[in-house]
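Input/output pair, single chain:
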Amino acid sequence: MTELVFKYPEALTQVNTHYCPGCTHGTIHRLVAEVIDELGIRDRTVGISPVGCAVLAYNYFETDFQQASHGRAPAVATGAKRARPDLIVFTYQGDGDLASIGMGEIIHAANRGEMITVVFVNNAIYGMTGGQMAPTTMPNQRTTTSPDGRDVALAGYPIRIAELISTLKTPAFVARGSMHSPLQVVRSKELLRRAFNYQVQGTCFSLVELLSTCPTNWGLPPDKACRWVETNMVPYYPLGIFKTPEGDDRAPMPR
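Output:
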């Protein structure tokens, strides 16, 4: 008797994506879809897509979707969730969308404790628009707008979104994972599962930041891009769980 151990997620459409070779957006899409399937929430899930590399995310999920203006996904998600509290609403945003033009939106949505789930993809650069420096770009990292590397004396240091959100008094689940290795992909899925499950239970706002690669704009092949994440991003953006709601006594994931 054959035992099925791996299958295509029902919450993911069977189409080719527009993402560059080696980009980990596709892997993150799969993780989100698997969690939606495993929690049995596909029929009442609504995603909010950003402006950026994931602007076409609505083509890749077998769930309802709403397109938001640049940076405004948390505001759109707030409206959907408040109008229909029975829905499971998540935003899927990149660092340029969430941490730059959308900084005000994400801070206040978290501070209000909106019952939404935020999937935040941090690849340290503006991907779709040409590889410009982003709020999360690493010190000395070269981009099209910082050809000599990010000068922190002029541009400041990269913003740590997970740490920033976790300082708010409002109850929340805030964590950071990474996509640079199979082990970290498995751990990232567990973070996503917890984030979505908190919404299912009506517990709190959740944000999961995921370190991702951008081989095209980094000018690196996919394998070296993954190593670059591990060597350069993980030390500055430590992995793990930064905040859990009161009453959750589960041990933090090892960092």
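The mean pLDDT is 95. The longest helix spans residues 182-200.
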